[in-house]
Amino acid sequence: MDTLKTTLKQLQINPANWLDLAGNRPAWRRTVRLGAAIYDDNRIAAAKAKMAARNSPAPRVNAAHDQALLTCPRCQRNFRARIGLDEHLQTHCNNNPTTSTSANPHSYSPPRASLAPIQPLTPS
C-alpha cells in the first residue's frame, strides 16, 4: 500500500479518496493523464537542472595565489616553487668564495691565443 500511496501522491491524486475517483472512469483517466504529465514535466525539469549543474564549470581555486611566496634570505628574491628557491640558494653558495674552496664550474673561460705576430716559415 505504501507504493500505491507514493505513486498517487506523485500523480497529485489524494490517497484518501482515490477509490471514489476510480469509480468514475472518464474522470479517473483525465486525472491520471494530467498527473502523469505534470510528474513528467517536473522530472524532466529536475533532470535538466541537475545536468546543467554537473556541466557548469566549477569555480576555479588558484592555489598558487593562496600560498605565501618563498623568499631568498640573502637577496629577498621571491619564488613560487620550492625547487626554484633551492636552485637559487645553490648559486649563492657557488658564488660565495668563503663557502666553496673549489673554482666555480660556471666561470670557465678557454685559454686565450697569444697576440705575438706570426713568423713566416723559412725553407730549410
TrEMBL record:
Instruction: Please give the residue ranges the record annotates as the region Disordered.
Output: 90-124
The C2H2-type domain covers which part of the protein? 70-97
Query: Organism's domain of life?
Result: Eukaryota
Q: Which InterPro entries match?
A: Znf_C2H2_type
In this chain, composition skew of type Low complexity spans: 94-105
Under Gene Ontology molecular function, one entry of this record is: zinc ion binding
Which ranges of the sequence are coiled-coil? none
Identify the keywords attached in UniProt to this record, alphabetized: Metal-binding, Zinc, Zinc-finger
Residue ranges crossing the lipid bilayer per the database entry = none
- Protein name listed in UniProt: C2H2-type domain-containing protein
Per the UniProt record, the source organism is Schistocephalus solidus
